[in-house]
Design brief:
The chain is mostly helical. It has four helices and no strands. Helix content is 69%, strand content 0%. Pfam families: MazG (PF03819).
Length: 108
């Protein structure tokens, strides 16, 4: 499946009011990313950092939810996920080439 195919299929399950375009999926993305982070935290607390097959599956399910919301944010911005991914890799390659992968700030 390509990014474009995923984005088109994900769009079919977006059931939020148009008045909340962008806001709804952005808040959902933050929530799902938090759920993913919380499950990872519990791996440290409850499993001594050992990833069990069950926990791995739960993390992948949360990651799928994150992906859905990323797709919806892109859709609501009128963007194609493929273009977003390609632009991100271009930015990272540029930072690597300039020795700027480490550090902070958007404009490195």
């Amino acid at each position: 499946m390509t990014f474009e195919e995923y984005q088109e299929e994900a769009k079919k399950t977006a059931l939020y009011p148009a008045t909340y375009r962008l806001l709804y999926p952005t808040l959902g993305l933050a929530g799902e990313a938090g759920e993913l982070a919380n499950k990872v935290k519990k791996v440290l607390r409850d499993h001594d950092g050992q990833l069990t097959p069950e926990v791995r599956e739960a993390l992948l399910a949360e990651l799928g939810d994150v992906l859905w919301y990323v797709a919806q944010v892109a859709t609501d911005l009128g963007a194609n996920l493929k273009d977003v991914a390609e632009a991100n890799l271009a930015k990272l390659r540029s930072r690597k080439h300039r020795g700027q992968l480490q550090g902070s700030g958007d404009n490195r």
